[in-house]
């Protein structure tokens, strides 16, 4: 497994460019589009509360947050990637293969619960590192590379599970996705913890500033002494690790390792990041915006369910929202040129 600490570049770039990156980031953060997603989220919640009283019940809001947790974890990882100007289409398949690997070690009276956790996370980290290695060494566009590893990951999940769900998991493992602490479901606790960790990493560390710098202008970042390949390796490895965590939570929640799990999850995660203000051209994005984007997707889906709208129409609505978010992002980029 690659040493993440050794990947992080130690050469300090010139402060001038990083200061410019920080000022550009702050300017964009104050933009109307940044606050627009929050206003849209609040407005949709108000409308749903007026239409269906069940929406604001504690039980329903708990269901929403629990369902959102997996997509949000994936979205946090893909936010790192998109900020650096990349993309990762393989995270849905990572959910399947990491879930299957974790389930293989999670049978009762076999291994301590830490073993399936470790194996699932290591699988995700290695998968992400493989993405980063191929992308940085081959210089092939991340879309093509991760499209290939998406197919490869799905195949690996089917091979390891022999095409069948892996069941009979231990109660300790199932507690991760189905248990509660002080009445709060574990997936929500995991979501909160990793939201804080990812936010601090992105906004308060040198590595986070490198991510913005690489996504903002690769040539300027290279001239400032930043190792582009090392930053991208770390980013894709982090994305894989978060996908591994999401796979573990999902497997624990449904109490089986499903080789077909995670199909289409990459689209929801990317949508959450883009809706939350992460620019498709790189250099812009926040974990707070991504979390709001994931919550917005979850609230809309839950609201449509409460209104008995079929899943077919839900997909149409979600597609319209994604297109609208990308169009707004494009307008914002043109306005800031």
UniProtKB/TrEMBL annotation:
Membrane topology, record value: Multi-pass membrane protein
Pfam families (alphabetical): BPD_transp_2 (PF02653)
Record InterPro entries: ABC_transp_permease
Main localisation: membrane
Highest taxon above the source species: Bacteria
Residue stretches spanning the membrane: 32-51, 63-83, 89-106, 113-134, 140-160, 181-202, 233-255, 267-300, 312-331
Alphabetically ordered keywords of this record: Cell membrane, Membrane, Transmembrane, Transmembrane helix
UniProt-annotated location(s): Cell membrane
Protein name as catalogued: Sugar ABC transporter permease
Species annotation: Nibrella saemangeumensis
């Amino acid at each position: 497994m690659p040493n993440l600490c050794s990947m992080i570049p130690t050469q300090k770039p010139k402060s001038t460019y990083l200061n410019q990156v920080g000022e550009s980031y702050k300017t964009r953060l104050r933009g109307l589009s940044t606050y627009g997603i929050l206003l849209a989220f609040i407005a949709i919640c108000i409308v749903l509360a007026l239409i269906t009283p069940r929406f604001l019940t504690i039980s329903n809001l708990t269901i929403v947050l629990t369902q959102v947790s997996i997509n949000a974890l994936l979205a946090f990882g893909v936010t790192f990637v998109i900020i650096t100007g990349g993309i990762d289409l393989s995270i849905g398949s990572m959910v399947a293969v990491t879930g299957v690997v974790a389930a293989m070690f999670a049978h009762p009276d076999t291994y301590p619960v830490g073993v399936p956790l470790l194996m699932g996370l290591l699988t995700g980290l290695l998968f992400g590192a493989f993405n980063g290695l191929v992308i940085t060494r081959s210089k092939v566009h991340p879309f093509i590379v991760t499209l290939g590893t998406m197919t490869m990951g799905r195949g690996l999940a089917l091979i390891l599970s022999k095409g069948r769900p892996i069941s009979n998991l231990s109660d300790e493992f199932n507690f991760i996705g189905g248990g509660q602490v002080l009445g709060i479901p574990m997936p929500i606790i995991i979501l909160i913890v990793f939201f804080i960790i990812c936010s601090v990493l992105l906004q308060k560390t040198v590595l986070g500033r490198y991510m913005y710098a690489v996504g903002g202008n690769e040539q300027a970042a290279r001239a400032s002494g930043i190792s582009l390949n090392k930053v991208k390796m770390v980013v894709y490895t982090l994305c894989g690790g978060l996908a591994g965590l999401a796979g573990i939570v999902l497997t624990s929640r449904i109490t089986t390792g499903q080789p077909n799990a995670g199909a289409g999850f990459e689209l929801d995660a990317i949508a959450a990041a883009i809706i939350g203000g992460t620019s498709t051209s790189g250099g812009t994005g926040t974990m707070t915006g991504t979390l709001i984007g994931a919550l917005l997707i979850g609230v809309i889906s839950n609201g449509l369910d409460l209104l008995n709208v079929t899943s077919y129409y839900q997909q149409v609505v979600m597609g319209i929202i994604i297109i609208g978010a990308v169009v707004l992002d494009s307008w914002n980029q043109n306005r800031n040129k």
